[in-house]
Amino acid sequence: MSFFRSYHKGPVRENVGEAQEPPPHPVLPPTQRGQSSTPLPYSPSPSPESGPGGEVTRPYISLQQVTKVYPGPDGGVLALNNVSLDIERGEFVAIVGPSGSGKSTLLTVLGAMSPPSSGRVIIDGLDLYHLPPEQLADFRRQRMGFVFQQQHLIPYLTALENVLLPLALSRSDQKTARAIDALGVVGLEHRAGHLPGQLSGGEQGRVAIARAIVNEPLIILADEPTGNLDAAARESIFQLLCSLSEKGRTILLVTHSAEAASAANRRISLQDGRVAG
Amino acid sequence: MSKGSFGLRDIALSHLRRRKTRTLILAMGLLVGTVTVTAVSATTQGLKTDINRKMDEFGANIVITPDSADLLLSYGGVVVSGVSSQVEELKEGDAAAIRTIRRKENINLIAPKLLGLADIEGRKGTIMGVRFPDELDIRRWWDWRGQPPGSPEEALLGSQVARALGKDVGDSVQVGGFPLRVAAVLEPTGTTDDSLVYIDLALAQTVLERPGKVSLIEVSAWCSDCPVETIVLEIQEKLPHARVNAIKQAVASKLSTLEVVSRFALGLSLVVLLVGGLMVMITMLSSIAERTREIGVFRAIGFRREHIMQIILTEAFTISLASGVIGFAAGTLLATLVAGRIAESPVPIAWDPVLALQVIGLALAMGLVGGLYPAWRAARLDPVTALRAL
Ligand SMILES: Nc1ncnc2c1ncn2[C@@H]1O[C@H](COP(=O)(O)OP(=O)(O)OP(=O)(O)O)[C@@H](O)[C@H]1O
Ligand SMILES: [Mg+2]
């Protein structure tokens, strides 16, 4: 059984449909993805980009003058400084930049996890941080796959149980099969029963990747997922991300690796919290 | 984890299972409290029942005397009248009549006795005619050397009389011209009992030439479910010529001693409860940073606050329920041992369902308060802040 059985080829870029209609999904509709929660509300304000016949042409992900200040002494830290970006559906974006330039911050703000100090983040017509916190949580669970720079596995859950976490709220009886598939994709199905403490750093990173893709998310945000990996494992993770993007997934990858950056179809370079090209 | 149904419950149970030390310390804190409260509560309850039972079973709580006031003689704090007078005497039949009152099941022991002066070894002395088995039952605190008298030819001597006569167990003693064997000698009691010669009631009636007569009747009645006054009134109705009195001071003072003891025990168990509660708090707080990070992961993955509360509640509920049940069982068993030691006889300790509910409720309250506050705080943070805890 293949992890990718439910994916199908879709156009890399798509326009979002009319306001009253649910947006077309390049992948499974929410019901088939086994989610128990109510579908997210859409708030597609009539946009100036509305074309003839009600067609809306707007970017899939849009950051508008996003600033993020971490509070602290001396006025805090300005981690993102007036960043504006558009990213289209299915794009594979590499985010590069020196340490401390705001890459992880950008990812968490994009990932519906950390509200910006000012500015807006709009994904698929949704003004993210205007959603109540609980709907933001549903959004993360249903749409997002996040690989943390520090992995953040739950230490008392096995590799398999960690991968199962995003499915814990679903009533599907396929959960374990799907989690084993995802572990197989990163080549770790034989370590399913081990606790994170019993795995190497690279193996933990691969479990974190499996956890990020198990829910078949539309957007995958990965913060240096290949940091601890050898060349072969790194290569296979890039292959995985490439094939996911070819299948319509939007990928944002923070990396220091030049080869990864060249594999992506777009590169965003950050410098002191600003987009430097 | 059951196949294909990994859920919030599995997360909570995995935490308890794989963080054994933490789970154990938490359970210990809860157990210290629940075991103590159960043991103290069950022990005092058991002792109370035991004392009530013993007081009802043994020792007179009603004294019946003739209703006349000439030639007073004081016996054991009770005024006995008419030692030599012939007016309004009690008869042995009166003792039997007591068995015919409406609440006759409440009557435990009846001990009629006849008191008088007789010739003892050529001197004047006070003799007390009694029915030996009943008398020994009602004077439960008596200690003696020898064997209790088993036949009318045997006597029991108070310690002072024995010394004055120079008699000991096995010797012969002349009472009213009858040669009796000294079957037993009382250990000193510090009461008038020490100066009496106890002989068989029928023999005393012969010696004192008062056939069928008695001087007073002591009665022990069960009264755990009824006021003793009710029984007094019913006896009074049957014996209008007699004076019927309840002895209440003894009962009241014993119960008040127990009240003091049980208040002290309650205070002690509250202190232990506080210590247990602190243990739970410290355990919870010491893992707050770790928990905050984990909650950050759950939130980042997209769990709602209610889901996180569900995980925490399942954990707290499981461990509190287990600790409550185990604590109640262990506390009750402990009470059985302790109460037996204190009472120096087996004290029946009941499995009290009300106490069980109280103790389990207590454990749940401790566990939930200890677990919910940190979780509630952590779940309010945004995921990134929670992930950065410490
Ligand atoms: N929670 C926080 N509180 C205060 N300052 C923070 C916090 N998180 C990040 N920063 C600061 O914000 C800036 C950007 O941090 P960020 O983690 O986004 O950098 P990065 O580009 O991911 O760096 P690296 O490549 O080292 O991971 C840094 O100066 C960092 O010190
Ligand atoms: Mg970073």
Describe it:
The complex is a heterodimer of chains A (277) and B (390). With 277 residues, chain A is of the alpha/beta class. Chain A has seven helices and ten strands. Chain A has helices spanning 103-110, 133-143, 159-164, 175-185, 201-213, 231-246, 258-263; strands at 61-70, 77-87, 92-96, 118-123, 126-127, 144-147, 219-223, 250-254, 266-271, 274-275. In chain A, the strands form two sheets. In chain A, strands 6-7-8-3-9-10 form a six-stranded mixed beta sheet, with helices on both faces. Chain A has a four-stranded antiparallel beta sheet with strand order 2-1-4-5, covered by helices on one side. Chain B folds into two domains: 5-54 and 255-387, no CATH class; 61-246, no CATH class. In chain B, α2 (20-57) packs parallel to α10, α2 runs antiparallel to α11 (353-380) and α8 packs parallel to α11 (353-380). The radius of gyration of chain B is 34 Å and the shape is elongated. Chain A binds chain B through residues 108, 111, 113-115, 133-134, 137-142, 144, 146, 148, 152-154, 156-157, 161, 164-169, 172-177, 179, 195, 211, and chain B through 1, 3-8, 10-11, 14-15, 17-19, 293-294, 296-307, 382-385, 387. The complex binds adenosine-5'-triphosphate and magnesium ion. The site of magnesium ion (MG) has 4 residues of chain A, from α1.
What is this entry, summarized?
The complex is a heterodimer of chains A (277) and B (390). Chain A has 277 residues and is α/β, with parallel strands linked by helices. Chain A is 26% helix and 20% strand.
